[in-house]
Amino acid sequence: MRLEAPGALSMLKGSDLTRCLIVLLVGALFGTASAVTQNPMIPDTPAGEALRAWLDAFNSGDRARFDSFEKLHAPWLTTDTEMARRARTGGYDLLSIDKSNKLWIVFHTKERASSVEGYGRLVVRSYDPDHVTLLSLAPGAPSPEFTLDKAERTRVVNGAAKLLEKFYLFPDVAKRVSEKVRVLRERGEYGEINDPEIFSIRLGDDLVLLSGDKHIGVDYFPKAMPPEPARRPHPDPRQLAALNCGFDKAEHYPPNIGYLKLTVIAEPESCIQTATAAMTFLADSDALIIDLREARGGSPPMVAVICSYLFDEPIHLDDIDDHQENTTEQLWTNPYLPGKKFTGKPVFVLISGRTFSASEELAYDLKSLKRATLVGETTGGGAHTVTPHRIDEHFFIRVPFGRFVNPVTKTDWEGTGVEPDVKVPAQEALDVARTLAAESINRARLQPQGNR
Question: How confident is residue 185, by pLDDT bands cut at 50, 70 and 90?
Answer without folding.
Answer: very high
